[in-house]
Amino acid sequence: MNKIKNSWIIGLLVIFFMGVAISGTAKAAEKTNRENDTLDAKQIIERVCTKCHNINRIVFSPDRNIREWVQIIAFANRKEHFITKEEMAAVIKWLQVHLHELKPASVDLEALTKGFDPATKEFLINNNCLICHTGEKIQQKAGLLSVEEWQDILSRMKLKGPALLNDTDTDKAAEYLANFHMQTPEEIAESVKGVIDRLETDK
Q1: Minimal CA–CA distance to 128: which of 55, 29, 31, 56?
Q2: Which structural domain range is residue 118 located in?
Q3: What does the buried/exposed string (b/e) look like for 35-73 if buried means 16 or more CB atoms within 10 Å of the residue's CB?
Q4: Does 92 share its domain with 125?
Q5: Entry pTM
Q6: Using one digit for the tens of pLDDT, what is the confidence trace for 81-103?
Q7: Cβ–Cβ contacts within 10 Å for residue 144, how many?
């Protein structure tokens, strides 16, 4: 009799704790969903994603699946940890449905090419480089990478933003960038003049 009674008690306890566990899981899931609902994904994109590039990098991005967006955002987030996992999930969920709602940002081509020689200015404008990048950003790598490396980069860019690079001859562009001679913008030319003169004198 005692064994039967104990079995009933144990059974009731098991059912009770299972109910508590299920209830706790449901509440946690409800809390997570509620937190995700309060996250403004578009505002996160405009605030965080534009720390390193303008909004056009996203606007002109092709349709991507969840896995691709996770890889892209995780790679960008790997050092600075700009966003939390919850924010990342909210952003990706929003992009899957609302990417088309983002509008391209206008860029001041004259300001971005100030101080560059005419040939470089023409190249940057004609190939839509400045829609997403600054001239200085391109200068950081131009002339330092081989033709093959630039071809790989430009091919990837063409996949990411086909609407921008449809008319770009990636082979010619890669050759130009690989043979690029660093141009010093006018606003910093004076500050480095003394250094250049000193180095040339020491030759």
Answers
A1: 56
A2: 109-201
A3: eeeebebeebbeebbeeeebbbbbbbbeebeeeebeeeb
A4: no
A5: 0.54
A6: 888 999 999 999 999 999 888 88
A7: 13
